[in-house]
Design brief:
Distance between the termini: 102 Å
Shape: elongated
Strand order of the largest sheet: 9-8-10-11-7-12-13-14-15
Radius of gyration: 30 Å
CATH architecture of the largest domain: 3-Layer(aba) Sandwich
Structural class: alpha/beta
Number of helices: 15
Number of strands: 15
CATH topology of the largest domain: Rossmann fold
CATH superfamily of the largest domain: P-loop containing nucleotide triphosphate hydrolases
Largest sheet: 9 strands, mixed
Strand content: 15-25%
Helix content: 25-40%
CATH class of the largest domain: Alpha Beta
């Protein structure tokens, strides 16, 4: 053997794997054999659809259905019921043409899932129809959680892939004229029933698109519902109704998911029918029952970065609309200054929400948001504005047992030096402890203090029974 042959043989021996070396099991691939490996995307897709043997059928039927109906799916002159009827008829035909044997239960399930995908929001449509769920959280196309009775639970449903999830997000946001793409990867939107939607996509979301939907009841909750849930007590509800009718300026404070918007909706229901109400929101969620309601919604910038209309812009504009009441869904920026000025210039009876952990923190955050307006105002001047404008703070909390409770009703008394003084009218009784199921037994308890605003309520012809302020245990 020549030197060249010996070198070639040596190189072959060093590049052979143990499985292909002499003596390996028969049938093992030779050194020159290439083993085909599935692409990562295909592997993920197979993993996602592994539990659904009809995934390919659904994809084929879905495509045929879109081809058959075409523009009818987007016909503005067709009612929802007419569209549903045509989709289901075409769906039955498409499944029959597929000629794949399946049981009656499978046929019904596949039909419903395809109908949900075309008429609704795909695999999360049944979750949105479930009245026991309060939130739907899509962490990825195959990782979905819900909130049931205040607790997070993972559900056994998923989207087909990332593209399927993105199509669903686009369907939601496009209905209200908003968009989400790489240049604008975050969006706040709403469903037709007012449910709040937030979506964030790559590159901001590293592991795929995220979709969060906070559901609202089809029938807005009433004060009786909140009393039944234990959110507040009958005496506290009577007091809050008197405060709204008596045109006090009220802030609802609390953390994320504490139920502030629901409480704001209930408070707004106390406004008399003969008053002109202007509501201002980022995404329209409030559903007031009065006849004279004007709903305004902010608008983000377009793809060129222009055309944005902020909450602050809408608050300024609302004051030119001759409102009796201004209801702002949430104050989160410099709009706080315009809101305070409105409250202090004859537009009393305004109601809004903000994020804070306690009533005292709410005052500090309000002060900070006023400073965001860029005005070089002294702190004392801001605090005087706050003390003069705001009459009542309602603190709402989501407790660790999953319930949402009003934990404080606090009156703004005035100023002492440079400090805003407050007094708690009702406080939640944490000392009552927990029951055997881990639920809080306490409720709102009167502090025995008579609010100073009672005289103002009397001037507006609103009478509040003084007996509700007497001490002597938790009020029911």
């Amino acid at each position: 053997m020549s030197l060249t042959d010996r070198l070639a043989a040596a190189r072959n021996r060093t590049t052979e794997s143990p499985d292909t070396a002499p003596g390996a099991a028969s049938g093992a691939p030779s050194p020159t054999t290439t083993v085909a490996r599935p692409a990562a995307g295909e592997a993920r897709k197979r993993a996602a659809t592994k539990g659904d043997p009809f995934q390919d059928l659904k994809r084929i039927v879905h495509q045929r259905l879109v081809e058959a109906l075409g523009p009818k799916l987007y016909d503005a002159h067709m009612t929802q019921s007419e569209l549903e009827q045509q989709v289901r008829l075409a769906l039955q035909t498409a499944i029959a043409d597929a000629d794949i044997p399946m049981s009656s239960a499978d046929r019904t399930r596949v039909s419903q899932e395809i109908a949900d995908d075309i008429l609704g929001y795909g695999p999360i449509e049944p979750l949105l129809r479930d009245p026991t769920l309060s939130e739907v959280m899509v962490n990825s196309f195959q990782d979905i959680f819900v909130e049931r009775s205040g607790k997070l639970v993972k559900v056994d449903t998923s989207f087909t892939d990332e593209a399927h999830l993105r199509r669903t997000i686009d369907k939601i946001v496009s209905k209200i004229g908003r968009r989400v793409d790489e240049t604008s990867p975050m969006v706040d939107a709403r469903l037709p029933d007012g449910s709040r939607v937030n979506a964030i996509i790559p590159p901001l979301a590293l592991d795929g698109s995220k979709l969060t939907i906070r559901k609202f009841s089809e029938d807005p909750y009433t004060v009786e519902d909140l009393i039944g849930f234990g959110t507040l007590t009958r005496p506290a509800a009577n007091l809050l109704e008197g405060c709204v009718r008596g045109r006090l300026n009220i802030l609802v404070s609390g953390g994320t998911g504490a139920g502030k918007t629901t409480t704001l909706n209930v408070l707004s229901s106390f406004i008399p029918d003969d008053e002109r109400i202007v509501t201002i929101e980022d995404a329209a969620e409030l559903r007031l029952v009065q006849d004279h309601v004007l709903r305004l919604e902010s608008r983000p910038a377009n793809i060129e970065g222009k055309g944005a209309v902020t909450i602050r812009d809408l608050v300024k504009n609302s004051l030119r609309m001759r409102p009796d009441r201004v209801v702002v869904g949430e104050i989160r920026d410099a709009a706080a200054l315009d809101m305070l000025q409105a409250m202090n210039t004859g537009h009393d009876g305004s109601i809004s929400t903000l994020h804070a952990n306690t009533p005292r923190d709410a005052l500090a955050r309000l002060e900070t948001m006023v400073l965001m307006a860029g005005m070089d105002l002294p702190v004392r001047a801001i605090r005087e504005q706050v003390a003069s404008a705001v009459d009542l703070i309602i603190q709402q909390t989501r407790l660790k047992d999953g319930t949402r409770r009003i934990t404080a009703i606090t009156e703004i008394v005035g100023m002492e030096g440079d400090i805003i003084t407050t007094q708690d009218v009702f406080l939640f009784d944490y000392a009552a402890g927990l029951d055997e199921n881990g639920k809080f037994k306490g409720g709102l308890q009167s502090m025995g203090l008579r609010p100073r605003f009672l005289e103002r309520l009397t001037d507006h012809g609103v009478h509040v029974d003084p007996a509700i302020f007497a001490t002597g245990g938790t009020l029911r």
